[in-house]
């Protein structure tokens, strides 16, 4: 090519990063052993698996294939280490974590090269995004270790954490998991993805280098079926943190149900990228490149659904095609390459399969005219138009460089299309009208919303999903709570569980339900349960359900007797069934506008209700106070812009109240949930539901819109099961025996609803530390981060 031709084509020359230092580092160490208790240990199986360079298809290294015996050894080491590390002063932990951050920076280029060799991602990304963010995470969390005592005073570490990470951001996902875990005083056993272990092994060397105490960090390479499943099922593990596919996340939810293990799941996505007609289209095009071709589209929050306002769609698609024609694919170590290799032949095949499905379903596929390298696993950037929202490619996470585009006419239609997915990880909104963008952002069901930007991450800002994208946050202060538990909780199995005495309830099918006309007066003021004296002088019994703002007879037509401690029948409540739950969930859904109302209105309804409920007056007032004060944060990530962290209502929460304090337990759960804007379906105490059903009058006269609170009485476990299985219920709280907790966690795996269960831990509801406060508000909300860059 002569100078004239070069000038005309503006072709880049190759700018290769040297692979030699990375390859030499590998050669000196392969086959790699396991990292347990700061030692390099041969795997019990004696087996090793190949690690392949996706850009060549050739073997890079061999890594140990751990099995359950190695998991036992690593967990044992982590348990011993926890005894000391969990009590190590925050300042000392800070020094270690700070040292890790410094050493990441010292080895930054080696780490970047290893990551590109092992994963196939372009060196520009590993060098400029992955590794700097890794260091940033450790610096940021070093600070939280220092501040833990003053900023999270009521909390202690969880214990030993099992961490399972994917292959798409190998070292970054390690940092997102290990940094907060160590900062909060936990020890860890981490399993990298089978395809991409090398940077985790280099990280283990850093752990040795900085002299982190043995057993605090253990790294086990190997197969999911051997290491991953053994970690998930291990009794010595107190928490599992997982990032990966929704299917595996669901199986982990099921496997850990009832074990008492804390769980956070970062799962898949099908994130919308919404472009309004007043957006700056040249910026949009670069945004799309970052959204879907960053890391070959193997990004859980990739903007893989392009939603364009109809009147600009043709223009934008034309510009995009032009840009795609100029994207460069090839050797990941070439600094002038935009798109590297797909991680494995299996992933490549899956992408091709889904693309074929798209064509078969009638969408129009477009790819640039140039060809991909023939060696290694490459897939060209791909654009689908004429896509119908219900088709496979519009719904399924492709996890490759494939963009599907659809059009909309109005902002309302854009929101509807955007939310038409089972996922809820991220979204991107493009408009020069900030009013429009900030109006749309809160309406999107997604943990992160980027305005006029995309795929920005920072340690200050929590990242995580809504709906089937998982639960829990990584980063920010909210992410720390995934690695702590209240100090009053003990690690041992609960000493005392509250069981419903068999004889205290019965289903009375032979006797007709007490009608509304037969309301009966009872003597008040006596003790209903040990230690709790209702403050009402008399109870006006109205034994129906409360659904959609109305008192409703049970669908079953049956009632159940309610007894006092002496075994005397003191009333009846309706025997709820599936139909009642369905009606209640429907009513709770229809009352969705509650969350959108002003927080001031929510506070006022509360104050009205509080005035009428004497027994729980203080707690109601607490949440009335919180309703307009539980605010988010404005993060200042290192860019010209801010990230607004807003705690949002979760949606419809199903809840089973504790038996211990029928009224106070009821109020303690209901009040924070509705104060934060949720609508609820609540199953009051099964033994003593009357104090809750007496609240109907309060609810009716307190300006609470119909459907915000729905009360279904009856068999707690039967009704909880229906709620936990219901796809329109977004979260489930359950305060009852351990077996019930397990059933709720298992059933909730269907739509991956967030659960909050007591694991049989007794809680003192009269105590304001255990019975109210920030823990309740946090469980009633999920944090959305809205990124708003500024400047011309
Ligand atoms: P997986 O979810 O299967 O793997 C993620 C991690 O979990 C890996 O470390 C894996 O180990 C481990 N794992 C797999 N099964 C189990 C199990 N039963 N118990 C415990 N651990 C387990 O993702 P894949 O790598 O198979 O990718 C498949 C699809 O998942 C992708 O096409 C993409 O759609 C999605 N995905 C989403 C990611 C995200 O960030 N949301 C990240 C990666 C993938 P091993 O590597 O040994 O199999």
Outline the structure in words.
Helix 11 crosses helix 12 (313-325). A hairpin with a 4-residue loop joins strand 3 and strand 4 (58-64). It is built from 28 helices and 34 strands. The chain is of the alpha/beta class. The strands form nine sheets. It has a ten-stranded mixed sheet, sandwiched between helices. Strands 8-7-6-9-10-18 form a six-stranded mixed sheet, with helices on both faces. A five-stranded parallel sheet has the order 31-30-29-32-33, sandwiched between helices. The two termini are 39 Å apart. NADPH dihydro-nicotinamide-adenine-dinucleotide phosphate is lined by residues 164-168, 191, 193-194, 223-224, 228-229, 232, 243-245, 248, 251-252, 267-268, 300, 347, 350, 397, 399.
3D shape: globular
Strand elements, count? 34
User: What is the C-alpha radius of gyration, as a whole number of Å?
Assistant: 28 Å
Termini separation comes to 39 Å
List of distinct ligands in this structure: NADPH dihydro-nicotinamide-adenine-dinucleotide phosphate
> In which range does the helix fraction lie?
25-40%
Q: Briefly note the structural class of the backbone.
A: alpha/beta
On the 0-100 scale, what is the average pLDDT? 89
| Beta strand % | 15-25%
Reported for the largest beta sheet, the result is: 10 strands, mixed
* Uncertain regions spanning at least 5 consecutive residues: 493-540, 607-612
How many helices? The count is 28
Side-by-side strand order of the widest sheet: 13-14-15-12-11-16-17-34-28-27
